[in-house]
Amino acid sequence: xxxxxxxxxxxxxxxxxxxxxxxxxxxxxxxxxxxxxxxxxxxxxxxxxxxxxxxxxxxxxxxxxxxxxxxxxxxxxxxxxxxxxxxxxxxxxxxxxxxxxxxxxxxxxxxxxxxxxxxxxxxxxxxxxxxxxxxxxxxxxxxxxxxxxx
Amino acid sequence: xxxxxxxxxxxxxxxxxxxxxxxxxxxxxxxxxxxxxxxxxxxxxxxxxxxxxxxxxxxxxxxxxxxxxxxxxxxxxxxxxxxxxxxxxxxxxxxxxxxxxxxxx
Lengths: 150, 105
Description:
CATH architecture of chain A: 3-Layer(aba) Sandwich
CATH topology of chain B: Rossmann fold
Number of helices of chain A: 5
Helix content of chain A: 25-40%
Number of strands of chain B: 5
CATH superfamily of chain B: Response regulator
GO molecular function (chain B): transferase activity
Structural class of chain B: alpha/beta
Radius of gyration of chain B: 12 Å
Shape of chain B: globular
CATH class of chain B: Alpha Beta
InterPro entries (chain B): Bacterial_PTS_Sugar_Transport (IPR050864), PTS_EIIB-like_sf (IPR036095), PTS_EIIB_2 (IPR013011), PTS_EIIB_2/3 (IPR003501), PTS_IIB_fruc (IPR003353)
Order of helices and strands of chain A: EHHEEEEEHHH
Distance between the termini of chain B: 13 Å
CATH topology of chain A: Mannitol-specific EII, Chain A
Distance between the termini of chain A: 12 Å
Low-confidence stretches of chain A: none
Mean pLDDT of chain A: 95
Largest sheet of chain B: 5 strands, mixed
Number of domains of chain B: 1
CATH architecture of chain B: 3-Layer(aba) Sandwich
Strand content of chain A: 15-25%
Structural class of chain A: alpha/beta
Largest interface: A-B, 28 and 22 residues
Strand content of chain B: 25-35%
Low-confidence stretches of chain B: none
Number of domains of chain A: 1
CATH class of chain A: Alpha Beta
Keywords (chain B): Kinase, Phosphoprotein, Phosphotransferase system, Sugar transport, Transferase, Transport
Enzyme class (chain B): transferase
Oligomer: heterodimer
Shape of chain A: globular
Pfam family, one (chain B): PTS_IIB
Largest sheet of chain A: 6 strands, mixed
CATH superfamily of chain A: Mannitol-specific EII, Chain A
Number of strands of chain A: 6
């Protein structure tokens, strides 16, 4: 299994120009809706914000990983936005974020073990400084995929 | 030294695995043997063996939820922190572990 199987060119956006957390989340959730990972944007966002309430999803180094389980997820996936400028976000190091990775995961994951496994491998990559550096410097979709390739 | 641990976050899809990766990297960098079990949405992975547990000098629990099978670590020295501590400052946490072990001897 390759982590890149989890990534979809259409749900990766570089040079994103969001000015706020809300804008960034909306933009990425729209990509997930358009490409049929989620079925309802408002309900999905409610579940994402419910997780935001519990604690910071900014993991430091300008990376945020908003996530939550939602009944409105049809297929496990991720949307990745590389924003042009830093936007305010609750984070562990007190900085804003430039890379936003929105996870879509359902509540019922029966039959989705492969995808869950890929997602855990993907999340692990985010604990790796080299991957983070590459992500922050990504200008094209291919750069983002390359960051997760090895 | 030999460090083992468990990572388990609230939702079980992101922080658990980031904490695992960061702790393992930080531990290895400091010259330790380290293995972190993950308890997430997918279930338990990288499960600690009885031998690993027996040989371990110390246990790190990076968890926001109840760790299942905690009784496996009975009689061991255990450090418990929220997952975000492992995500935010893994090197500091490993240092802390070293300090705790130094006090013991």
